[in-house]
Amino acid sequence: MENAMNKIHIKIKEKNADAFLLFNHEYSGQPGTRFFSKFSGSESVLLITKQKRLIITDGRYFSQVQNEVKNFELIKIINLFSFVLLKNLCLKLKIRTILIDSNCTFCSTVEKLKLFIPEIKIILEPGFIQEIRMIKEVNEIKLLQKAVDIAQKAFHKFLPLIKIGVTEQWLANKLESLMKECGSEKIAFGTIMASGKNSALPHAKPTNKKIKAGELITIDF
Predict the structure, then answer these.
(1) What's residue 42's pLDDT?
(2) Is residue 79 predicted with pLDDT exceeding 80?
(3) Which pLDDT tens digit goes with each residue over 88-109?
(4) 41 vs 170, which has greater pLDDT?
(5) What is the pLDDT of residue 30?
(6) pLDDT at 81 over 80
(7) Which burial class, exposed, middle or buried, applies to 60 when counting CB atoms under 10 A from its CB (0-12, 13-18, 19+)?
(8) According to the 3-state scheme, what is the secondary structure of the chain?
(9) Is-contact 90 117, C-beta < 8 A?
(10) Which residue, among 19, 34, 35, has the nearest Cα to 131 in the 3D structure?
(11) Which candidate, 73, 74, 20, places its Cα nearest to that of 47?
(12) pLDDT band at 174 (very low <50, low <70, confident <90, very high)
């Protein structure tokens, strides 16, 4: 991740900013906070300056941060994230300008930053994180290959289970279970298992429809 950190520092310098700020809230999708820090929890904030790397999270995750994260200083909060805490950190670190990727930061979060820390200048840089992640490191390529291997192994075990009379939902559940048995951490997205007329729907959800003889089945997983 040092290459990624170097790219952040280059962007901070390029934009004449003092820090890069990245939020990961519950249900925020695929958090960049995990990419940069390896922290897999569902609530965290990263504040990265030229000299400091801070990760902010609450009591649910203190032990998890210690197990997963290196080269970041843990800032502990008691309850949910506080913008007052962030303001105090910015004052302490003499941060006057913050860089944010507006593609993965809620509009409401930006508005709260403006409200609670009006003296801080915010620079919005859409797609910044995607730009960094576009070129894969060697270890990332290995993880991608591992994910492919898991999916392929699970799929071959799954094929004999496709029979007339079983439902789309049953098949989807079996495929997801097999992926976990083969080493998957979790599914990338909701499994699509659609038969007959349902298979014409690009994003069909598995239903209780039973598989009939001669039907096509669309599987996306």
Answers:
(1) 87
(2) no
(3) 999 999 999 999 999 988 899 9
(4) 170
(5) 62
(6) no
(7) exposed
(8) CHHHHHHHHHHHHHCCCCEEEEEECCCCCCCHHHHHHCCCCCCEEEEEECCCEEEEEEHHHHHHHHHHCCCCEEEEECCCCCHHHHHHHHHHCCCCEEEECCCCCCHHHHHHHHHHCCCCEEEECCCHHHHHHCCCCHHHHHHHHHHHHHHHHHHHHHHHHCCCCCEHHHHHHHHHHHHHHCCCCCCCCCCEEEEHHHHHCCCCCCCCCECCCCCCEEEEC
(9) yes
(10) 35
(11) 20
(12) very high
Position 146 pLDDT exceeds 70: yes
Please say if the pLDDT value at position 216 is more than 80.
yes
The two structure tokens encoding residue 199? 């298979």
Dihedral angle sign, alpha carbons of residues 150, 151, 152, 157: positive
Cα separation, 57 vs 53, whole angstroms? 13
Rounded CA-CA distance 200/53 in Å is 48
Structure tokens at 116: 């609670």
pLDDT band of residue 48 (cuts 50, 70, 90) is very high
Residue 194 CB contacts under 8 Å (≥ 6 apart), including other chains: 168, 200, 201, 204, 206, 217, 218
* Amino acid, res. 57: T
Tokens at 198, concatenated: 């349902």
Tokens 């289970």 sit at which residue?
161
Q: Which of 41, 123, 25 is nearest to 81 (CA)?
A: 25
CB of 70 within 8 A of CB of 90?
A: no
